[in-house]
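Hello forum,

I keep getting stuck at the same step: I have a sequence, I want structure tokens, and every attempt I make locally crashes halfway through. Rather than fight my setup again tonight, could one of you with a working pipeline run this one for me? It's a single chain of 321 residues.
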Amino acid sequence: MLDIVSLLPKKHKRTASGWLSFNAVCCQHVGERPDTRQRGGIRPEGNNWSYHCFNCGYTASFTLGRTLSFKARKLLSWLGVDSSTISVINLDSLKHKDLNTVAEERALRKITKIEFTDYELPKELRLLSSEDQQFVDYLNSRGLDYRAYPYMVSPDETGRQSNRIVIPYTYDGRIVGSSSRYLDDKKPKYINEQQPGYVFGVDLQQEHWTQAIVVEGVFDALSINGLAVLHNTINDKQAQLINSLQKEIIVVPDRDRAGVTIINRAVELGWSVSIPPWDPTIKDVNDAVLYYGLVGTLMSIMQHKESSKIKIEMAKKKLYV
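Reply #2:
Ran it on my machine without issues. Output:
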């Protein structure tokens, strides 16, 4: 396993309580002045370690057998460890996972889990099929495969109900709400049946993924297998649900002034924000996928993610251009 002490600056000292103090490497990355008073400290305990900065307050820790947290990954990167090595360290740690660790992680997920009541979809709905050309064409125009999600329609109904695509909201495989996208020119275009604290796309996340991308709209989330909060802010219950995934969280706002709200909330929550320099015609993630493709969009999101408050504030101004 990694010897954390070997990564520390040569200029460090050991305290009587076992902490190794040095100029903290985190401060300038979180919008604070660089530390010059050796206020960063690591306390190694065998293969495990804890980090605390007494300058900016940044904390991180590592326990053998557990997944590297987002904060631990960031700290290692600031200490000069490249991303591929961090991934190897993470995999090596998980090889030491024991039954007690598994039980603790399951207990933690149970504590943080938010419950939603079952929701009954209208009985006239049925699964979208290849014969429903109008709806298939619409999804194609959004760059989406009609077979990749259980989209539902009711073309035999009258009025607006015949001209909608319904996206079921699921959680733990149960239906807990829905979003209706109407294809006529009338308003509203969307009608959402959303329970408080619900986040679309939790069921799309894979256990081995280390990041989760948060967007505003349901089609944005479907475009990249991301999470959609379904409006331009994030309430406390949604934040709790997203944090329970124990992944690095990256928020990608819509490209308008309203997107500033979700950026500010992401900063409050300590999450990363990505505002890639996309073409001016692109308004959201779904537009980006249509323009750059899935791989190009994801690469640009990862390349331009920021956790520094100052850099996020500078990038935020691009939304006004």
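The two ends are 47 Å apart (CA to CA). If your local run keeps crashing, start a new thread with the error log.
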